[in-house]
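During the second half of the funding period, the structural biology subgroup turned its attention to how the target accommodates small molecules. The most pressing case was NAP, which had performed well in the primary screen but for which no bound structure existed. We therefore specified the complex as follows and requested a full 3D prediction, including the ligand pose.
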Amino acid sequence: MPIATTNPVTGEVLKTFDALTDEEIDAATGRSADAFRELRGTTFEQRAQWMRAAADLLEAEQDDVGALMTLEMGKTLTAAKAEVLKCAKACRYYADNAETFLADEPADAEAVGALRAYARYQPLGPVLAVMPWNFPLWQAMRFAAPALMAGNTGLLKHASNVPQTALYLGELFARAGFPAGAFQTLLVGSDAVEKILTDSRVRAATLTGSEGAGRSIAAIAGRELKKTVLELGGSDPFIVLPSADIAEAARVATTARSQNNGQSCIAAKRFIVHTDVYDEFVNAFVTNMSALTVGDPMSDGTDVGPLATEQGRADVEEQVADAVAKGATVRCGGARPDGDGWWYPPTVVTDLTPDMRMYAEEVFGPVAGVYRVTSIDEALELANATPYGLGSNAWTDDSLEAEHLIDGLDAGAVFVNGMVTSYPQLPFGGVKASGYGRELSAAGIREFCNLKAVWVGAGGDAGIDDKTE
Ligand code: NAP
């Protein structure tokens, strides 16, 4: 994939970039290792000051960086600016909380024959971050803010279609005061990832992206015995039971499926509706999806812009065509408009069966699949019947039903009477083919730390009894 800014509104290539040479990658990795030696010696207070300065920069520059994201991948400018502000919040959250999250954890000294015993979190070193284009700032920030606050350094290999946003990120933290080299962007294609990850100076990797990229990076990291966090795809269920507020469920379902032009890992993608409220929900949902304003993502009134890439749109078209060929019904949308750019309309498809690709695959565009079920257990079974397990949404006014779903859904998150969203305060990640490890919250900052056991004795025989391992 060429490293280039291509406007998805028109399909026009606006700017191209050369990939870094091997020598340039080597030099950047060296700078990262040098910056790590410096950063690990700084205090939380110092790093927090720099992190708050990064938040200030993001807030001051939200219009420009928001417009850049919209230009490169087509999300609405309103959503892009909100994303910038969310990043600033995450910077402040980790500036405020990192020291508490990584405080020494006392252990029972007497039980281990020590004078003092505790566990200490320490940074690992340079971490490679391979990131996707769909939330070009937020995905990278979810890694960067906790990693830098822990004292790690970052090497960002961003998606090839958002190079200018990647370059902005590559300068942000140095501008905020972090040591030069603490967080760098490497403009490289995915073919350079293996070389970077096998460099002994790089200690770990995080990837947010597709299942295929996850398998590839995990295989390399496995050979190298390096820690990975993988945030992969999802096909989140949105269960609607009869006791729910159906109009509200249909309203939120519309946002959950169309946000970010339908290209969110945690977008609700499969709508699993009890037969008693199926017609009411589907009618309201189709009305809402049809009413969304599709158009110029730079305009205030736009709900849905174009898809980010030509290939992405082709994938969505093929999945819908496959379903239709096998008997599915398109209730709205379902056909691309004529003209330039990678447009695809909000679409609702019903009458889906297990032989259709949409049934088990992730659809990365504004296309909703709706399923009819006759019981909560059938809903649960269908919700869990994909390879993925990222987020899940459950709509019910019955607390026993809610508990049943909270326990039963195989997913990294369940949101009851709401839609899955990421918050700095809550862990974020998946199970099954959606990956492993967690970002955000205290769990996120601990992922790239060495949890060091510290045992301090008085010498002599203390602890000798348990020297078996
Ligand atoms: P993608 O193709 O996997 O790209 C993501 C990143 O991985 C890009 O930087 C890409 O580089 C790189 N990459 C691709 N193949 C690679 C390989 N074999 N080895 C090493 N690096 C590789 O993903 P996408 O299709 O652009 O993004 C959408 C996917 O990301 C969806 O599945 C979505 O659900 C998932 N996602 C997950 C989360 C989450 O938190 N769980 C969040 C957002 C998105 P190039 O651009 O140079 O190819």
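Two results from this model are relevant to the next phase. The mean pLDDT is 97. Residues 63 and 81 are 6 Å apart (CA to CA).
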